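User: Structure please.
Assistant: Input sequence and predicted structure:
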Amino acid sequence: MSLALVHTRAQVGVEAPPVVVEAHLANGLPALTLVGLPETAVREAKDRVRSAILTAGFEFPSRRITLNLAPADLPKDGGRFDLALAIGILAASGQLPAQGLDGYECLGELALSGAVRAIRGVLPAALAARTAGRILVVPRANAEEACLASGLTVLAVDHLLELAGHLSGQAPLAPYRPSGLLRTPLPYPDLAEVQGQQAAKRALVVAAAGAHNLLLAGPPGTGKTLLASRLPGLLPPLDEEEALQVAAIHSVAGPEPLEHWPQRPFRQPHHSASGPALVGGGSRPGPGEITLAHRGVLFLDELPEFDRKVLEVLREPLESGEIVIARARERVRFPARFQLVAAMNPCPCGYLGDPSGRCRCSPEQIQRYRGKLSGPLLDRIDLHLTVAREHLRLGASPAAELTTAEAARQVAEARAIQLARQGRPNALLGLDQLHQVCVLSEADQRWLEGAGERLNLSLRALHRVVKVARTLADLAGQAEIQRAQLAEALQYRASH
């Protein structure tokens, strides 16, 4: 047969659109033409595939070979198409049977020896192959990751000859059986290790219960970073769909291995990070820190030290839960439903309000320092808390402190109430649901509006106060929002 079709997958963002390799052999001077909008790495596949076929002991056809990667308008990059290209040539030349190829999808980069090397982005392709109902052929190094898509038949190969033997029926491959090495989540650090700071721990529980964003302000050494690192352990476990979303993002990002899955991400970029590093980008757009923190926590320490333009790009994802990166030839959409926790000092030296009186910052310096943060960004942070210095207690026992297990139980109960009532955490309530779920008495509404006027709160900030109050009522097991919850929610706005 002079024409063969082999299925494979491209990578666009965190999606894996289908690609069909069409291999056609015709009479004429020997030549190999590769079409279908291939990038440089794909164009170079011609030489890798030729050497792999010859090294494996097959004949490379001395005919005019045309390889088309369809659809033609979809950009293709990387070495992920090598294995499909080689199988297409062998099937079109009659060295392998072309029948039955429709039931397979092939991914893998070929070495000159015919060995099959690992690639990035296998999990999104595995999820798409499961939906299409095909068997997925991947490098053995990627097989464990591909098996995270339960219900998918995976064939793991180390060499081109292994797949050729399977397709010819001479040496059928058994489906790969996962070892479960990726399913080993690490224990989270315990909240009880943080001494004191009861108000901050309370705010942390509230933030976890309602998926609220949190800003911690205070002098150095008061435990802001310790508190932030404990937040992922308070959040409910990822369900299967969320866990696969997180794993797919890290599969695409690479080269970090998919270890300790499923676990909520905790990302802590340095304050020197650029805009593309934070939100994603590049000539071929890749995920940034906000996408790598999807379904987890993004912790920005020393918040005013970040470039203001970099921080401003967070405003849209904080509202929409996604980021769209536009380039000349494509628009790539990345998920970014993260929980923001930020920490900052109250002034440039960090000791404003400290009982020691060591702060020597002028009002102008303090104003300039805080002015690095825009009002619209601070408006999108629900909880603002001042973390004060406490008395030193070296060697104090953590036995009396709130543990992660106890706090996680409170959070889980509050989240269960929210999911049963509106199907999402309180922080994600839309305006229509907000008016249905957060019903205030006429007296409380007038009181809240008056307080908002005195504190110069925007309407968005006032809505977020109501959402926090709803979370406080859920933690208390109350069906209606009381004045006490509104007052506590307002404190989180007035404390910074």
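The two ends are 74 Å apart (CA to CA).
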